[in-house]
Amino acid sequence: MDEKLIETEADVAEGAAWLAAREPRFAEALLLTGPLPLRRRDGGFDALLSAIVSQQISVAAARGVWAKLEAAGAISAPRILALDTEDLRALGLSKQKAGYAKALAESRIDFDDLRRQRAETVVRELTAVKGIGVWTAEIYAMFSLGRADVFAAGDLALQEGAKVLFGLDQRPKDKELRIMAEAWRPWRAVAARLLWAYYHVIKDREGIS
């Protein structure tokens, strides 16, 4: 695996400087956002289980469910496999998410091996698990594995940030934004950080909902 990794704030700064030197609009955005965050997080089974828990519910609700799972020790594959669907529902998971949690536990993903795989392989292996979509897999590759050249083009905030920054008439869809992002290799994950930061700046300034 010879891909660039983002492990420190210096890595993020290197990528930001590269992007700013090649795209004036990124340079302008950086003046508004300031230094970009590292945003690294732990990986493994519990990270993906947390992503499943968080799907389509508020942050507060997700924290509540996660607290119940933690209290029950139900954040590891063996423990999830030991519980039945009703047990998981009693801990706050919907029937559908209980099924997703079971599928993740049954997948027996080798998380150490994922760190040695190319990003495309990581996304393909993760999305083979029921309940894990492309966005979740790409976010995992970006922030849990630190891959520098992954871009979650399906993210609505990234799409809106790109629309405003590049003066587009409408928000680019996933495929269109992926094509745009080709020009940002090998630092697409830093471009994503920049677009997220820029989106939050303009959202606060212009009241974008």
Give an overview of the whole structure.
The protein contains 13 helices and no strands. The protein has 209 residues and is mostly helical. Helix content is 64%, strand content 0%. The chain has helices at residues 9-22, 24-33, 45-54, 59-71, 77-82, 85-90, 95-107, 111-114, 119-127, 134-144, 156-165, 174-181, 188-206. The protein has two domains: 9-40 and 149-206, Endonuclease Iii, domain 2; 45-144, Endonuclease III, domain 1, CATH 1.10.340.30. It is globular, with a radius of gyration of 18 Å.
Any idea what the CATH superfamily of the largest domain is called?
Answer: Hypothetical protein, domain 2
Quaternary status = single chain
CATH topology term of the largest domain: Endonuclease III, domain 1
As a whole number of angstroms, the C-alpha radius of gyration is 18 Å
| Count of discrete structural domains | 2
Helix tally equals 13
* Helix share bin: 55-70%
Mean pLDDT: 95
Q: In CATH, what is the class of the largest domain?
A: Mainly Alpha
Element-by-element helix/strand order: HHHHHHHHHHHHH
Uncertain regions spanning at least 5 consecutive residues: none
Give the CA-CA distance, first to last residue. Answer: 40 Å
- Rough shape? globular
